[in-house]
Amino acid sequence: MAKAKVYKNLIAGEWVKSTSGLTFENRNPADHRELIGSFQDSTAEDVDRAVAAAFQAYSQWRLTPAPKRGEILFRVGEILARRKEELAYDMTREMGKVLLEARGDVQEAIDMAYWMAGEGRRMYGHTTPSELRDKFNMSLRMPIGVCAIISPWNFPIAIPSWKILPALVCGNTCVFKPASDSPLTAVHFMEVLEEAGLPKGVANLVTGTGARTGSALVEHKDIRVVSFTGSTATGRIVAQKCAHDFKKHNLEMGGKNAIMVMEDANLELAVDGALWGGFGTSGQRCTASSRVIVHKKVYKQFVKEFIEHTKELRVGNGLDPTTEMGPVINEKQKKSILQWIATGKKEGARLLWGGNPLQEGNYQYGHFIEPTIFGDVDPQMQIAQEEIFGPVVSVIPCSSFEEAIEIGNSVRYGLSAAIYTQDLNRAFVAMREMETGIFYVNAPTIGAEIHLPFGGTKETGNGHREAAEATLDVFSEWKAVYLDFSGQLQRAQID
Ligand code: UN1
User: Fold this and answer.
1) Is the minimum distance from the CB of 285 to ligand 1 under 6 angstroms?
2) CA distances from 491 to 300, 481, 482 (A)
3) Which residue CA neighbors atom 10 of ligand 1 most closely?
4) What is the CATH code of the structural domain delimited by 9-253+461-479?
5) Per annotation, catalytic residue among 94, 252, 305, 459
6) In the prediction, which pLDDT does 4 show?
7) DSSP character for 462?
8) How would you label 138-174 residue by residue, b for 16+ Cβ within 10 Å and e otherwise?
9) C-alpha angle 33/335/98, rounded to 5°?
10) Which of 147, 149, 214, 148 is nearest to 180 (CA)?
11) Strand ranges across the sheet with 203-205
């Protein structure tokens, strides 16, 4: 096997080593004998340099006309499209999702690049009448400064693109700290930005741990915005750090998303949805359909078919085109998922399928778990309340539509929900009643598109949305402008 490459940080347009002199390894979760590469284990000093570079670049980038910034993002989209296959391949190697999904991940970044390129020519503010004669009122979006971008490994390029591209089109600069389990895709993304002609220092990359590199970045005095996607526990720490000096922060955190299957549902469709929503990306999506609430009248039938199809899922290396479910991200996560499965059994949920690690033959080299179904789950059990982030689905019986809604909302998260029904009235009531930021009818809880706002309520988020036009509110500040052309003093609310 060829010697794995050592990848560097990108600071002020130069690929540089960390001052720590240390690197960390990134291995293939489907076969840990394969070393993907070594990456810089960055220090607070590296972060300091990266923020300084971004700070310096900001003075010119903010004055670059937004349509010109957008043109660079358009080229980003074109380069991503050209490199799609290669980026998807490396993504599967470094984080395990099946190639088909890795291509989708890159596609999401391409979509985002084109959308944000267009924002360069929109970025609408308002003109609005004044209360007073001969006075003109308008609002403008202003860039904010240096943004810290902290992203997870489950969508190694889609999620960074949701953050970095709107930050840039708004005229901000950024320092990007990707998850330690997906740094190669982050390096590729920076190469794409470079090739597209982004000026030096506008986007910088520092790899490393959350505890050291991430913390130093969030705490840095010159950071003005923190955009974070990860666990609710870490998000809470980020919020506390940001509160100290009032940094703007958008947090995208956990989910415990429910599919509700009503007695009139097309069951075949609902089973397909539960399979894709529950086991796609090995259940490692914040939008994963980790709960399926099924009406008692169709419960037996649904469960039977769900198990039958789950048995057939082919688990393996995501590079093999016949694989339908890849590994989980690492040994620690595998242990945590198995621990949750043990908890489910202890709580009295009925293990209907799976529940075991896969470790024979080729599986022994990766972090594989059987797709797992629990049945007869009580909505208050921990496995029905907490985010597992793995291929574990809890099926919960219910006796009515109203009860399904109540169970659906009985968690502390509020990201995504779905209903399978043929009844339009019920679909609309559910749309109104579910306390989530995303809602689907006759489709699972995954599959958001980038031109709609993405995010959740309750402990999933802190009121912001990513993607679409909504994300501009994270990366810009409003300025209200009043021009008085009356030639005299006019007093608002008085004259
Ligand atoms: C996530 O769930 O972690 O909606 C992000 C989806 C994808 C993004 C998911 N477009 O399934």
Assistant:
1) yes
2) 71, 15, 12
3) 448
4) 3.40.605.10
5) 252
6) 77
7) S
8) eeebebbbbbbbbbbbbbbbbbbbbbbbbbbbbbbbb
9) 55
10) 214
11) 14-16, 9-11, 203-205, 173-177, 146-150, 223-229, 248-252
Ligand 1 binding pocket mutation candidate from 108, 446, 449 (most atoms within 8 A of CB) = 446
Which of 100, 454, 460, 471 to mutate for ligand 1's pocket (most ligand atoms within 8 Å of CB)? Answer: 454
Distance between CA 261 and CA 445 in Å, rounded?
Answer: 12
Judge whether residue 2 has pLDDT over 60.
no
Q: Return phi, psi of residue 218, to 5°.
A: -65, -35
Q: Which of 277, 291, 255, 305 is nearest to 398 (CA)?
A: 291
Other C-beta atoms closer than 10 Å to the C-beta of 253 total 26
List pLDDT tens digits, range 220-279: 999 999 999 999 999 999 999 999 999 999 999 999 999 999 999 999 999 999 999 999
Among this protein's residues, is 286 annotated catalytic?
Answer: yes
- Ligand 1 site, residue 401, Cβ cutoff 6 A: no
Question: Ligand 1 centre and the CA of 256: distance in Å?
Answer: 13
Cα end-to-end distance, the chain, whole Å: 80
Tokens for 279?
């086991």
Please check whether the domain covering 258-441 is classified as CATH 3.40.309.10.
yes
Same fold, 9-253+461-479 and 258-441: no
| 231 Cα to the center of ligand 1, angstroms | 14
Handedness of CA 220, 225, 227, 228 (dihedral sign): positive
Taking the model in full, what pTM does it have? 0.97
Would residue 466 show up in a list of annotated catalytic residues for this protein? no
- Domain limits, the chain: 9-253+461-479, 258-441
Tell me whether residue 198 is exposed, middle or buried, using C-beta atoms within 10 angstroms of its C-beta: 0 to 12, 13 to 18, 19 or more.
buried
**Which position among 147, 242, 286, 398 bears the catalytic label?**
286
Q: Is the CB of 238 under 6 A from ligand 1?
A: no
Query: Which residue has the least CA distance to atom 6 on ligand 1?
Result: 447
How much distance in Å is there from the Cα of 455 to the middle of ligand 1? Answer: 10
Q: How many residues would you count in the chain?
A: 495
Q: How far is the CA of 285 from the centre of ligand 1 (A)?
A: 6
Query: pLDDT, tens digit, for every residue of 181-233?
Result: 999 999 999 999 999 999 999 999 999 999 999 999 999 999 999 999 999 99
